Amino acid sequence: MRIRIVDAFAHEPFTGNPAGVCLLERDDWPAVEWMQAVAAEMNLSETAFAHRLTQDATADWALRWFTPVTEVDLCGHATLATAHAMRESAVVSGSVRFATRSGVLAAHLSADGTITLDFPANPPVPAPVPAGLGAALGAVPVAVYTTGELGDLLVELEGEQAVRDLDPDQSALSKVEVRGVIVTARAAQAGGQYHYVSRFFGPRVGIAEDPVTGSAHTALAPLWSARLGSASLTGLQASARTGLVHTRVLGERVELTGRAVTVLDGQLLAG
Q1: Domains parsed from the chain with CATH numbers
Q2: Once rounded to an integer, what is the mean pLDDT over residues 45-62?
Q3: Cα 216 from chain centroid?
Q4: Close Cβ partners of 229 (under 8 Å, ≥ 6 residues apart)
Q5: Is residue 205 helix, strand or coil?
Q6: For residue 260, what pLDDT is reported?
Q7: Which residues are designated catalytic?
Q8: Which helix (H) or strand (E) is 18 found in, with range?
Q9: What's the 3-state SS for 99-157?
C-alpha cells in the first residue's frame, strides 16, 4: 500500500507540519487497530486515511485522522496533505469533499498550487483560567477561551516574544482536560508578513508540540479577525519548523489556505 509523508502549510521541504497520508485502495475502512498501529509507526502528529465513496451524494471521499495514540475529530494539516496527495495521484481536480467526524469538509485545489480548506468556525468564548495553567505554561495568560467543538483551550499572551519563548511543562500541561492548548498573541510588527502568532501543545493526545495546526486556526481566525477588523489574515505558527496559514472568516465557516510538499513516497508492507 502506498504511503506518503507530506509537509503541509509549507513552501519547501522540512518546514510546515508533516502528515502521513494513506489513500486506501478499498471502499471501506480497515480495522481501527491497524490504522492506529500505522499512525504509531509513522509517529507524526497525524496520519490520515481516506477511501473513495461511491454512493454518497454529499461527499466524494471518507477521511479519518490518527495521532500516534488516538483518533481525532478534526485535523487541518493532514486534510491539506491528503488533498495534495490526491492531486499528485490525479484522483481529484478542482475540489474534493470529505466525509469526516466533523461533518463534510471541502478542499479546493487552485492552479497556483495552493489548497484552500473550508472548515467550520469555532469562535472562542471567554473562560476562567484553569488552576495551574500559568505554571504549566511558564507564562501569565492575558485571556483564556474555550473553542466549542474543537475541544482546545485558547490562551492569549502579552506579546509575540512571550509565545516564542514558551517552554511548557508537558507533564503539568497534560493535566489540563482539553485536546490541546493553543497559545497566541498579536504579531510584534504591524504590517508584516503575518498578523498573529500561535503555538499548539497537545500532550494529552500524544503531541508535545504540533508544528502547524490547521484546526487551531478555526478558533484563531475568528478571534483575530474580530480584534483586527479584517476577515482575511495570515497566522504564523511559531514552532521550530514554522508555517503560514492564510485565513478568511466567512460567517460560520473559515477558509484555511496553504501549500504542501511531498517529502517521502513509499510502500507500506504490513497489513
Answers
A1: 2-119+257-267 (3.10.310.10), 125-251 (3.10.310.10)
A2: 95
A3: 6
A4: none
A5: helix
A6: 97
A7: 46
A8: strand 17-23
A9: EECCEEEEEEECCCCCEEEEEECCCCEECCCCCCHHHHHCCCCCEEEECHHHCCEEEEC
| CA–CA separation, 172 and 27 (whole Å) | 42
Residue with cell 498573541: 185
Asked whether 212 and 243 are in contact (CB, 8 A), the reply is: yes
Q: Which tens digit of pLDDT belongs to each residue from 173-201?
A: 999 989 999 999 999 998 899 999 999 99
Cell of 139: 507564562
Enter the C-alpha cell of residue 26: 478499498
Q: Cβ-count burial of 126 within 10 angstroms (0-12 exposed, 13-18 middle, 19+ buried)?
A: exposed
160: its cell numbers? 509575540
Rounded distance between C-alpha atoms, residue 153 and residue 255, angstroms: 21
C-alpha cell at 214: 490547521
The alpha carbon of residue 67 and the mean position of all alpha carbons in its chain are separated, in whole angstroms, by: 12
Nearest to 214 by CA among 197, 239, 237: 237
DSSP symbol at 45: S
Mean pLDDT of 103-128: 96
* pLDDT at 190 (0 to 100): 86
pLDDT, residue 191, reads 85
**Helix, strand or coil, per DSSP, at residue 2:** strand
Percent of the chain with pLDDT over 90: 93
Long-range contacts of 228-231 (CB under 8 A, 24+ apart): 228/186, 228/195, 228/196, 230/195
Q: What pLDDT band is residue 55 in, cutting at 50, 70 and 90? A: confident
Residue 56 has a pLDDT of 87
Q: How high is the pLDDT of residue 47? A: 98
Cα(84)–Cα(131) distance, integer angstroms: 41
Tell me: the pLDDT tens digits for 217-227?
Answer: 999 999 999 99
